[in-house]
Amino acid sequence: MVSIVALCIVTFSIGYMEDDAAKGRFFAGVAFFMFSMTGIILADNLIMIFLFWELVGFSSYLLIGHYFQKDEAKSASQKAFIVNRVGDFGFLIGIILTYWQFGTTDLALLSVKAGLEPTLISSFVGFLLICGFIGKSAQFPLHVWLPDAMAGPTPVSALIHAATMVAAGIYLLIRIDFILTTEVLTFIAYSGTFVALFAGFCAFAQDDIKRILAYSTLSQLGYMAAILGMGFSGIALFHLITHAFFKALLFLGAGAVIHACHHEQSIFKMGGLIKKMPITAITFIIGTLALCGVYGFSGFYSKDAILIAANDHNMTLFYCLVFGALMTAGYMGRLVWIVFFGKANSEAASSAHEVKPVMTVPLIILSGFAVFVGLNAYWPFGLGASIVSDLDHLHHLSNYKEIHKWVLILGSLAWVIGLSLSLLFYGRGSSDDHLQLKFPKVFAFLKGRLWIDEIYESYVNTIQKPFAEFLSFADEVILRGIIVRGGAGLVGILGIGFRLLQVGKLNNYFLWFFVGLLLFWLYGIDLF
Amino acid sequence: MDILTNLLCILFLPLGASLLIIALGKFRKQYAPSVAFVSSVFALGLSYTLLKNMPESVQFSREWLAFGDAKLHIGLLLDNASDGLDCSTLYCYI
Fold first, then answer.
1. What is the ipTM of this complex?
2. Domain boundaries defined on chain B
3. A395 contact residues in B (CB cutoff 8 A)
4. pLDDT digit string (tens) for A167-178?
C-alpha cells in the first residue's frame, strides 16, 4: 500500500513541484520519509519501531517546513514536532516499562509471553504505549498539529498526513493490541468516536480545502480507533487501507485544484471547476463517494464492516458513528458543490485549466483503487487474510442478516441525507457560506476547535515558561555556579553582582563610598 | 534474490535515493524527481516480488546490544499485520 501510494504521489509531485526552487530538498525529504515509514512497517520490535517512529517525525518536520520562508509553515512544522514529542515521551516510557515487565520488546515474543502470563499486562503501560498513537495519529487532545500541518506542500499532505504517517499510530495499535487491556481498548473506542464526531463538526467550519480534508482525516482515524477499541484490528486495518487510497486521491485532487487556481486554497474563491478540470473533478468526486461510503466504492465495504461490528457491541457508539457518516457526507458534499459546481468566484478560478498528464495519471490510478480496493477477498497473495477472518467473525453472528440489513439502511440514509442537505445549502455554488451567515456563533465555536490551542498556549505561558525560567536560573546559579564550580563559581556569581555596581559614573561611586562609610560607622557604634 | 536481501533493499532503497539526491546537490536538482521516481518504482517492484514469493510470515532478528543479561535485538518482521489477533479473546470488550 505504502509503495503504491508513494509512487503515485512522487509522480504527481514531479508536476506539482516543477517550478519549486528547492525541489531537490523536497524529493530527498520524501525519499527519507519513505525509508522511515518502511522501517516502522518492517520493524520486529518496539525499540526499532520507536527509532523509525522518530525518523518519521523528523522527516515530517522537514517536509511541513518546506516553505520555511513563510511564518505559517515554520510554526506549523515546529508545532507538529513538539506535539509529537509529547506523545512519543509517553510511548518511550511505555516501551521501557514493557521491557521491564516482559524482558523483551520483540513483538513475536511479547505476543507469546502475554498469552502465557496475562498478569504481566498492565493498563498503566498500555496507556503509556498508546500515547505514541495519540500523538502520531493526531487523536484528542494531541490533534492540534494536523490541521496546521497543511502548510506544507500538498503532496506531502497526501503522503504523510493522509495515507501513511498518521496511519502509523493505528498500525502500532494493531501490532501491540495483545498487550492492551480492556480499559485501554475501551478508552481508545470512546476517544476515537469522540474524535470522529468532533473533527466532523470542525470540518464544516473550514474554508481552506486542505483543512477540510485534514479534519476529515482526523474523523476517519477516529473511526479506525473506535473499531480497534472494540477488538477488531482486522477491520481497522481494512479501513486504514481503503482510506489511504481515497484520501491520497482527495489530497492530490485538492493539490491539482490549488495548482490550477494559482495556489488559492479558499473554497469560496473557486467554483465551476468541473468544466475546466473534468478529470480532476471526476476523480475527486469518486474519492468523495468512497469517503462517504456510497455503495460500490471501497469506503462502503470498510465502513459497513465498522458499523456492523459497532452495532453488535455498543449501540451508543454505533449511533455516533452513523451520525459521523452523515456529517462526512455533509462536509464533503459542501466541498464538492462549492469547488466544482456553480460559477467561478475569482479570477484564479475562471482562468484555471486541467493540470498536466503527469498529475492526472496518478489521480486516475488512485481513483481505480478508491473503487476496487474494498473488494478485499480478491486481493493478491492472500493479503486480506486477517481482514477476511474478522469479517468472517461478523458473518457468524447469530443475527448477522438482521444487523446487516439495519446497518445498510442507516449507512445509506447517512450519506443520502448528508449529500442531499449539502446540495440544498450549497448546490448552486457560492462565494459565501449561507450556513455561516445564519449561525455565526456556531461557526465561531467550531472554528475555535474547542480552544485547545488557546488552553495549551495559556498553559505554556503561565506555567511551563516561568517554570523553565526558574530551572534555567537554578541551573545557572546553583548547579553550574556553586555545586560544579564550587568557590570559583561563588566568586564568579559575586563578580556578576559587583559588576552591576560598575556603571562608570563618579557620583554613583561616591554614593557607594558613603554607604560603605555609613555601614562602618554603624558597626563602630555597635549597632550590628 | 533471497527474502532478507529483498527486504533490506525495500528498506534501504529510499534512503539511498535520499542520499543520492542530497549528494547531487543544488546544481543537479533537476535529476531529483527522476531519482525519487525510479526508487519508488523499484521499491514497488521489489515489494511485489517479495509478496509473490513470501511464506506466511517471516522474521529476521539478531543481537544488537547486550548489557549483562539484558539483550536488545534488531530485526525485520513481515507478516499479516493483524494475524495475531484472536477474536475470541478480544471479542466483546465494551
1. 0.83
2. 1-53, 56-94
3. none
4. 889 989 988 888
